[in-house]
Design goal:
The protein has 3 helices and 3 strands. By secondary structure, the protein is α+β, with helices and mostly antiparallel strands. The radius of gyration is 12 Å and the shape is globular.
Length: about 80
Amino acid sequence: MEELVRTNDPVLISFLESILEEAGIKHFVADGNMSILEGSLAMIPRRILVDSDQVQKARMLVREAGLEHELRPERGED
């Protein structure tokens, strides 16, 4: 799996999950349970991960939604 977006914004996470689900792209929100440790302060960003074979399609959908600035660098761009 590859990291698509990293954010503390629960509304953005929900929106992106909706876009990905509608497109049939399997994804996983990592670190979602960290709020138990941090006291629900949203200090630890959540990561949206997608399968490597669907990452380009997912990145395209995020761009089309006008959220390109939220995308993590592609592998090799670091």
